[in-house]
Amino acid sequence: MEKNNIGKISEDLKNGVKMIAMIAPSFVVDFSYPSILNRLDDLGFDKSVELTFGAKMINREYHKKLKKAKGLVISSPCPGIVSTIKTRYPQYVKNLILVDSPLVATAKICKKTYPTHKTCFISPCDFKKIECEACKYVDYVIDYEQLKEMFRKRKIGKDNKCVLFDRFYNDYTKVYPLSGGLAKTAHIKGLIKEDEFLDIDGIKNVMKFLDNPDPKIKFLDVLFCNGGCIGGPHTNQKLSIKQKREKVMKYLEKSKDEDIPEDRKGLIVKAKGLKFSGDVWWVKKGSKGLIEKK
Questions:
Q1: pLDDT tens, 166-206?
Q2: Domain limits of the chain?
Q3: Exposed (0-12), middle (13-18) or buried (19+): which is 172, by Cβ within 10 Å?
Q4: What's the predicted TM-score (pTM) here?
């Protein structure tokens, strides 16, 4: 993969190219906070942001779509799910909701705010790398294991000096990498009855539902990996899903006590003028074998 290139990333950072590290909130499974922000700074990243504000903007789009939806709607932030539906269940392509993922939304916001910076996504899985290859707003992508390798090569250890993400802070969407995280934070109460939406993690479980769908379900919030993104193949495999979930929830609770300056918060006005639905990356022709527009 062209964008998945540690050598090019390292060279750019060494040469002082301004770059933004975009981090999935599942990072707490493998890295301690706020240590990771110091370590990214030591690598040479100019800014570090989390995908949580992008998730907040995506939630707003889901709320709008679900308000008007008729029939089954399937969430689409997970490229593993999109790929599976395209190849195994083409009859459900029309049910995928045409909204960006938090990754793409965050990348768009970063490019709007810092137009001369390059963007690098730090990923828990390989499907997200496919998404990055198809997204013009992402310049580079590496996974958690590759980031650890970069830290080792540069001998960058832990540093718990208190720092914050540079911009676009949001707290409640930190649960996005957990199964059902989207449904729990998109404020769908009142739009869909409790027995009309379902969250499923693990592709075998998702396929089991699609093979024999419940006709009363109107919203399906699904993720490819067991436990959600915290179960990604590049996350810490020594921890159980329960332990990983506890790390995310502890991170969420800690974030509620943080004193965030106004200029670092994820305020809606900062995404003004950007479009997060309709022309999504995975319906574009030539998107690495994923869904193509009919």
A1: 899 998 999 999 999 999 999 888 889 989 999 999 999 99
A2: 6-260+268-283
A3: middle
A4: 0.93
